[in-house]
Amino acid sequence: MAKSIEYLVPLIKEGLNDPSPYVRKTAVISVVKLNRISPQSVQSFVIFLHFSNTTVFTLFSDEELIDRLYSMIRDKDPQVTVNSIVALNDILYGTGDTTKVPKKLAFYLLNRIQEYSEWQLSIIMEELMKYTPQSNQEVFDVMVCFICFLFRNLSHFLLEFVG
How many CB atoms lie within 10 A of CB 53? Predict the structure, then answer.
């Protein structure tokens, strides 16, 4: 198993930075798979040493991986965005880190709400449920973002989360 992880790590790292959205979304899901196969390789400082060839394989440190996945939430491709959210939730769930969604991220996701498919919307909506507006103005701003969503003929979907 360690041998296969040794080969996967450089490929995943390269895939996360690939120009193709298909490759990036697949690389993000590969991080989730790697986390399930070998959680210590994702959740600790990841350095793979292969002593016979004196080659060092480095994926990311904990913070670098998390930062990279957070930055991928802002990817222009909606599927990469959603996969990054799923990956972060999967990785952070094991660490007990249940952080709330910051305002900037919440509004970023809200402003792109028209781009997501129904499946993607379910993930986005679950994430937005972690956001707590700090003022009446923020509540109003959230409602304004949802107005366009209501015209998408998915109002039943929205009502499920509101109700």
Answer: 7
pTM of the model: 0.76
Q: Are residues 135 and 163 in the same domain?
A: yes
Residue 136 amino acid letter: N
Q: Which residues pair with 56 in a beta bridge?
A: 49
Q: How far apart, in Å, are the Cα atoms of 119 and each of 94, 114, 134?
A: 24, 13, 28
Specify the number of domains making up the chain.
2
Joined together, the tokens standing for residue 136 give 């009446």
**Residue 72 token pair:** 């991928």
pLDDT tens per residue across span 15-30 = 999 999 999 999 999 9
Listed in sequence order, the residues at least 6 apart from 131 whose beta carbon sits closer than 8 Å to its beta carbon are 100, 101, 102, 103, 105, 106, 142
Tell me the average pLDDT across 47-57: 35
Domain with 27 in it = 1-98
* H or E element in which residue 73 lies: none
The residues, any chain, with a CB within 8 Å of residue 76's CB and separated by 6 or more, are 21
Same domain, 141 and 70: no
